[in-house]
Amino acid sequence: MPEPTTWRMFAEAYKGLLMHLGDQRYAEMYAGPHGTVVEVDVTDVADDEARTHWGYIRTGKDVPEMIQPRRDFFDMQFEYGPEAEEKRGHGRIVRLAVTEVAGDA
Fold first, then answer.
1. CA 37 → CA 14, 47, 49, 96, 98, distances in Å?
2. Per-residue model confidence (pLDDT) at position 4
3. Which of 71, 15, 18 is nearest to 40 (CA)?
4. pLDDT at 105
5. Burial (CB count within 10 angstroms: exposed 0-12, middle 13-18, buried 19+), residue 83
6. Rounded CA gap, 63 and 41, in Å?
7. What pTM did the predictor assign?
8. Which of 7, 16, 31, 78 is the most exposed, fewest CB within 10 Å of its CB?
9. 3-state DSSP call for residue 9?
């Protein structure tokens, strides 16, 4: 079995959830002036019990986007649901483990 893919991203840490994952500028934009932005590792874990988030990888791309900690948050980003987009060949749904990167303390 191949090693899982991991991406380094940034996220807003909000009430115990890691949200608005993406590059640093994107996370900072959603966190606002009072939000906390943290560095995270995002790993494609398929059916592993460590999965914490849902994401979507568009056909022709190799980085997940529209990453959400809850399935209902994830689903609402698609007009006809993510499965319809997957059936059309526009991308694929991925299950992800998102972990905060330990700082240099």
1. 9, 28, 26, 19, 14
2. 81
3. 18
4. 44
5. exposed
6. 12
7. 0.85
8. 16
9. strand
Q: Give the residue extent of every domain in the chain.
A: 6-100
Q: Are strands 36-44 and 53-58 parallel, antiparallel or unpaired?
A: unpaired
Q: Mean pLDDT over all residues of the chain? A: 90
pLDDT in tens, 36-64: 999 999 999 876 777 889 999 999 999 99
In total, the chain counts a number of residues equal to 105
Tokens (6 digits) for 39: 């560095």
From CA 58, how far away is CA 88, in angstroms rounded? 11
